[in-house]
Design a protein that fits this description.
Distance between the termini: 29 Å
Number of domains: 2
Number of helices: 8
CATH superfamily of the largest domain: RNA polymerase sigma factor, region 2, helix turn helix motif
Radius of gyration: 18 Å
CATH architecture of the largest domain: Orthogonal Bundle
Shape: globular
CATH class of the largest domain: Mainly Alpha
Largest sheet: none
Strand content: under 5%
């Protein structure tokens, strides 16, 4: 998996560990989209994501010098993000993730009102279906669609083999399809 980008990222991590703020900024910027998706997956509310990401940045700044293996930067970053998201959720005493409350992106102006209503309804059904997924499937699904990550990169972030990532995505898509087309969740495993 040692591509030029990964090597470059490892070099940036080494530089950032010495206190180089620009290298640290570039590392965070480079990983921002998938990191944002990961945090959103845990919280499910857009308004809280920025607060958690700010705390993640503070943790990264404070702890980058403690990262022993630069090759594990992404998985280290994912652990920090999960911990901060979990802490935030606990502080607010949230139960389950409510993806159905997310704002739907505005549809194209030329779409008729009826088409727009149908699209809104379908988007809501998909969000609900994503929210019904067990966490490990939802996490893989969100990572796959929030950024242009490779299976290898998702594997590193989730700390599972590539084949596990692929299987989780296949199962997540199937579960979402089943939920949207049938409206029932009896086939969704809770593990």
């Amino acid at each position: 998996m040692d591509t030029a980008g990964d090597t470059n990222e490892s070099a940036m991590v080494c530089i950032a560990r010495t206190g180089d703020k620009e290298a640290l900024r570039r590392l965070l910027q480079r990983n921002w989209r998938w990191l944002r998706g990961l945090v959103w997956n845990f919280l499910g509310e857009a308004e809280d994501v920025d607060d958690v990401l700010q705390n993640v940045c503070v943790q990264v700044i404070a702890q980058i010098g403690q990262l022993r293996d630069p090759e594990r930067f992404r998985s280290w970053l994912a652990v920090i993000a999960r911990n901060e998201a979990t802490r935030s959720r606990r502080v607010k005493h949230r139960g389950s993730v409510r993806l159905d409350e997310q704002v739907v992106e505005p549809m194209h102006e030329a779409t008729s009102v009826l088409d727009r209503l149908a699209e809104d309804e379908m988007a809501a059904m998909i969000r609900l279906a994503i929210g019904e997924l067990p966490e490990k499937y939802r996490e893989a699904f969100v990572l796959a669609y929030c950024d242009d990550l490779t299976y290898a990169q998702m594997s590193e972030i989730l700390d599972v083999p590539v084949t596990t990532v692929q299987m989780r995505l296949v199962r997540a898509r199937r579960m979402i399809h089943d939920l949207v087309t049938t409206g029932r969740s009896e086939r969704i495993p809770r593990t």
